[in-house]
Amino acid sequence: MVFLEFEKPLEKLYEQLEKVKEVGADGVVDMQATIDELEGRIKQTRRDIYSNLTGWQRVQLSRHPERPYTLYYVEQMCRKFVELHGDRCYGDDKAIVGGIGSLDGQTVVIIGHQKGVNTKMRQYRNFGMANPEGYRKALRLMKLAERFGFPVISLIDTPGAYPGIEAEERGQAEAIARNLFEMAQLRVPVVCAVIGEGASGGAIGIGLGDHVMMLENTWYSVISPESCSSILWRSWDYKEKAAEALKLTAEDMKGFGIVDEIVKEPQGGAHNAPEEMAKTLKRQLKKAIAAIQEKSIEQMVEDRIEKYVRIGPVTHAS
Predict the structure, then answer these.
(1) Which residues does the UniProt record annotate as the domain CoA carboxyltransferase C-terminal (predicted)?
(2) For a surface tag, which of 92, 148, 247, 259 has the fewest beta carbons within 10 Å of its beta carbon?
(3) For residue 111, which of 232, 192, 179 has the smallest C-alpha distance?
């Protein structure tokens, strides 16, 4: 198990539990009472830790190395899935995956960021930071969904769009802007879910939808706490303060009207019970799609545009 900085009390209890279990395995001394006591303390400690998480702690949870990514959810939710590649312009971006899947008999197009499950795969996936061809691939798949009337599911988990000079040369900003323009008018249901990090244009580039949900321990913001800290204080040392000031948690986003729903995670985070998390996410995605499909296409598009027009009201001083 991988423990985060604020989970150190849990780590110590787990270490004690393992030692006690080793002693009990010898069969010389009955350690069951001690095991039960430690397991009870672990449950209580976990409840205490996760009952009042700060913004920065939720950022840390969203980046947990064992947290499930897009392809895990696709595997768990879809009986069949065919991945499609390439943007038909430049190449295939590995940071964004997408394809056609079957969600309990309903055909959907699923698009999402993929970070990679180990160091080698993270390099291969560019740590979930997409180049322009990734956003153009996503748009190609969305237009394919529109052509055949398939709902679109977008799973967001990125530290941001790739900021390299080659990405700028190939039109990073235009690719993201084009996606926003097209997604606003897409004539099929679009449901988005932030499953990890939701940073900047890298997230919104596939994140404009009829219904936007966030998993409980995720964040959504124009900038990461570290980058915000480096700009304002010329140092990463104030990242915790920046995280609080940015108001980037799921609860904050729900309060601002930027997202429509918060999806509860298993206690300790999605990585503690990934199969349970996948079932919960699937249930909420199906529910959201069904609600959107009750509308006419014209009403759906009108409501989607109006939803984003309402975000960020400005009050003028008299």
Answers:
(1) 34-291
(2) 148
(3) 192
The packing angle between helices 132-148 and 172-185, to 10°, is 20
Q: What is the extent of the structural domain holding 285? A: 59-309
In one letter, which amino acid is 201?
G
Q: CA nearest 89: which of 143, 128, 137?
A: 137
One domain for residues 235 and 195 = yes
Query: Which long-range contacts (C-beta less than 8 Å, at least 24 apart) are formed by 9-15?
Result: 9/45, 9/49, 10/42, 10/45, 10/46, 10/49, 13/38, 13/41, 13/42, 13/45, 14/42
* Residue 315 located in a structural domain: no
Count structural domains, the chain. Answer: 2
Residues 14 and 69 placed together within one structural domain of the fold? no
* CATH number of the domain encompassing residue 131: 3.90.226.10
Cα pseudo-dihedral 200, 55, 3, 285, rounded to 10: -60
Residue 88 shares a structural domain with residue 148: yes
pTM, to two decimals: 0.92
Which parts of the chain sit beneath pLDDT 50?
Answer: none
| First vs last C-alpha separation in the chain | 57
Asked if 74 and 217 sit in the same domain, the reply is yes
9 shares its domain with 75: no
